[in-house]
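pasting input
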Amino acid sequence: MAYWLFKTEPDAFGIQDLKERPGQTEPWDGVRNYQARNFLRDEVKLGDNVFIYHSSCKQVGIAGVAEVSREAYPDPSQFNPESRYYDPKATPDAPRWFCVDVTFKEAFAKTLLLKDIKATPQVTELGVVKKGHRLSIMPVTKTEWDILYAAASG
DNA sequence: GCCAACGTTGGC
DNA sequence: GCCAACGTTGGC
C-alpha cells in the first residue's frame, strides 16, 4: 500500500466533481510529464491512497482523498485529435501516456492549505512544499500521509 | 497578470 | 549531445 498526491485544477475537475461522478470514479488522464507518467505506469497500484490536491485556485491545498480503483492503462485522450491532450506521436501499439482510475473516498470539510502544509515541521520533503517542484503525481511517505491526514481531519 | 523555475524542442 | 529558445506550471 502506497500513498500519493495528485494535483488538479478544481476549476476543471476537483474533489467535488469526483464525488458526483457515476460510481464516484474517474480516469486520471492528461498527465503529460514523463516522470509523473512513470509513477502512474510503474508504481501506482490498486488500492493505493491518493491525496487530491487543488492547484491554481483560491484554496490551494489538499482537498480530499481518493483510492486507486484501476491500475495503469493507455490514456485514451492521447489518441483523440479532438482532445487537448492529443499526442500525434502516440499510437495504440506504442502508447506514450498512461492513466489510472481513482474513486472518491472523502472530501475534507476544510482544504488543508498549502501554507499550513509548509508550516508542518515534519513535512519538508514533499514535492508541493519544495520550491519549483511541479510534478503532478508525487509520492507521499506514510509518515507524511499520517501527519497530513490528521491535520486535514481537524 | 507576474515571473521564477522547470521541461521540451530542435538546430547544429 | 549540447544548449538556447520557447512553452508551461503554479504560487502569489
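fyi Chain A has a mean pLDDT of 95.
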